[in-house]
Sequence to fold (461 residues):
Amino acid sequence: MTGRFAWLTVCLVAGTVVTMLLIGLAFLPVSDWEVFVPAAALAGGAVVLLAATAVEIMGRRLAQPLRRMVRSIDAGEVGQATLGEFAQQAPVEVAPLLYALQRAQSGQRGALEQLERDRGQMAALFEHLADGVLVLDPDERIVLSNPAAARLLGRPLASGHALSEAVRDPQLVELVRAAPSGESAVHLIDMPNGQSGRRGWLQVIATRFPDAARRLVVLQDVTELRRTEAARRECVANVSHELRTPVAALKALVETLEGGALEDDPEVARDFLQRMHIEVDGLANLVNELLDLARAEAGRLELDIEPCLSDDLLRSSVERMRPYAEQMGLDVEVLQNDAGVVVRADARRIGQVLANLLANAVKFTPPGGRIEAGTRAVDGSVEFWVTDTGVGIDADQLGRVFERFYKTDPSRTSAGTGLGLAICKHLVIAHRGTIRAESAGVGQGAIFSFRLPREMEPARF
Ligand SMILES: Nc1ncnc2c1ncn2[C@@H]1O[C@H](COP(=O)(O)OP(=O)(O)OP(=O)(O)O)[C@@H](O)[C@H]1O
Ligand SMILES: [Mg+2]
Fold:
């Protein structure tokens, strides 16, 4: 209402006054002009002055709250509350505008707060992502990276550094450089990761943003996945191998019998049948071991937990093994450190563990050797152990004997499939226990021991 509009109003009033003056003059006789003109001019001037003053006062009244608001906005003081105050104090002509502004500001504030919350969530996600993420500018400089990327690449990744400086792996840099769009490649890389310096598999997915200038690199540690896959392949190969040998033997025996041995030489036929029996037993044993292992690995072992005397468990296993050991020319002795120790366990399953440890001791100890077994209470656990004076185990192989199908003898000439200790490990773990192998080296004998908590609760595993 100030400025040009105010003066337009004043001019309009002045124009109206002058027009009325001229109309008045037209109707008055000339003799009266002398009195009328000064009086009319004075009255017109007063009206114009009054109009100008009124316009100025009105203009100020309307402009003042707006000016104050502009000053507050410039000073950064306008918030929801102040806009409301301005609106309350403002004249009716201005108040609706201020209320409308207040509503718009409230909507914007809500949207901003939501944006801030979303940004915080995205930042937390980025920070805690297990996959490494890198964003590179067109010059292949790092714009953004998360802690997982630095961890997987084994070095700090500062923004602004060229990828080729930060990652000293030309193959990885080349892979990222060459990625046209949406390209993904699995790439082997040393992953020092601070602790083990182990070699692992890193999947690198490099892609360009739609503007084709910046690049996004996602790094995934697929080492475990690859190991599991390799273990699965190895397991299938081992099972096939273990099945092929007895099946081939059975086939040969059947063919020989069919070829005439059955009628021609009953003595030989009987011998063949006995050998077939052994092969079938071996196959049945393998299938049972595989089933046990599969159940244990899937966590589907059912344990029948009950209080058992550790000494009883050990002695019954040793006595079952004694004839076989003595037949092999071995001395067997039970050493009892603690009698009468009660342990809550599945007697049949723990008997199976002890039977395999004792069978191994017999199998891997040359005639004339000695096997000792014992049990004792240790803290809240019961320990069982079996020692022998046999072929021993090389330090490098000690950690692997609990793997499925692992045998220290590369030609795998000793009897058995190499599943026994893997099953033992799972049975002991199902009892929430631990198992270990020790040996002073090849030719130095071995000690196998496992511990079970004494207060094992009945449970399904
Ligand atoms: N007491 C031991 N002395 C020396 N080596 C052992 C002893 N016990 C186990 N090993 C080594 O660990 C390997 C794995 O043992 P594990 O009991 O799993 O298999 P296995 O006895 O060969 O076959 P399985 O038990 O399935 O019939 C053995 O093949 C052997 O190389
Ligand atoms: Mg065994």
